[in-house]
Amino acid sequence: MLAMNYSKYIELKIRRLEPGILEIAMGTDPAKLPTANARMHWELAEVWLDVDRDPETRVAILKGSAKGFSGGGDFAMIEQIVQDFEVRARTWREARDIVYNVINCSKMVVSAMNGPAVGAGLVAGLLADVSIAARNARIIDGHTRLGVAAGDHAAIVWPLLCGMAKAKYYLLLCETVSGEEAERIGLVSLACEEAELEAKALEVARKLAAGAQTALRWTKYSLNNWLRMAGPTLDASMALEMLGFTGPEAKEGVASHREKRKPAFPPPPKDF
Q1: Is 233 exposed, middle or buried (0-12, 13-18, 19+ CB in 10 A)?
Q2: Which residues of 147-162 are buried (b: 16+ CB within 10 A; e: fewer)?
Q3: Would the pLDDT of 245 be above 90?
Q4: Which of 6, 30, 46, 64 could hold 14 in an S-S bridge, CB 3.0 to 4.6 Å?
Q5: Does 76 have pLDDT greater than 90?
Q6: Other CB atoms closer than 10 Å to residue 199's CB: what's the count?
């Protein structure tokens, strides 16, 4: 029985694995790659507030489906962002809240990333206190391929995790990072074989749940001040991402994804 009522969540499947440990699974169909539609985007921002308030939870494990961790934004939602200011403003607020709510959640968060790891799910996955990736996981920040600035979490945490040179390389070129390479460069905490991923996440969660909770939470709070200090960087990147959605590059990026072709981005504005 959950003390906290998680019944409002539809796109996130939430269950108690054992005392103190909560599992948050993205997506409604384990046979499909979870995609962040408008509902899931909101839920990924909201859930960390409930986890923080949940007296029976010490650790939350975030996972995807058997198909993969997260597949990025639903294209219907992305097209609405391009076309509708109200949707754009709401998405900006939720994207900001996903980042800050994970950072400010007092409970420990462990992510277990397999297959593709993209978009809003990746935000929470890389901001987790302990991030674990399958060696063959495929991590990618696809913002610039879509024609918008790398907003969300990238500017605030990638340089801190793997250094500015690697962050620029992967964010500017949208190159895929394998789970094995992500561990090597420090982008994730651990990498393991995909078959061992859930067991490893549970092993780490059990150790955290058995630890001194006040000490762990105050340590997390202190360490996350590095991220809070980078708040203006995050805010700028998110604002520029949303500005990009109003321009011709985003329209071409969305069209090229829809048509499964290389984008032909227009030249930048004169004197840009």
Answers
A1: middle
A2: bbbbbbbbbbbbbebb
A3: yes
A4: 6
A5: no
A6: 11
**How far is 85 from 232, CA to CA, in rounded Å?**
23
Identify each DSSP E strand in the chain by its residue range.
12-18, 20-26, 57-63, 70-71, 108-113, 116-118, 130-134, 138-139, 177-178, 190-192
Place of tokens 């948050």: 24
In order of start, what are the domains of the chain with their CATH numbers? 12-258 (3.90.226.10)
Q: Which two tokens stand for residue 91?
A: 């998405």
Contact 130, 208 (CB under 8 A): yes
> Per residue in 125-137, pLDDT tens?
999 999 999 999 9
DSSP assignment of 147-158 equals TS--TTTHHHHH
pLDDT at 73 over 80: no
Q: Taking 80 as the threshold, does the pLDDT of residue 3 lie above it?
A: no
pLDDT band at 2 (very low <50, low <70, confident <90, very high): low
Kind and range of the H or E run holding 239: helix 231-244
- The mean pLDDT value of the chain amounts to 95
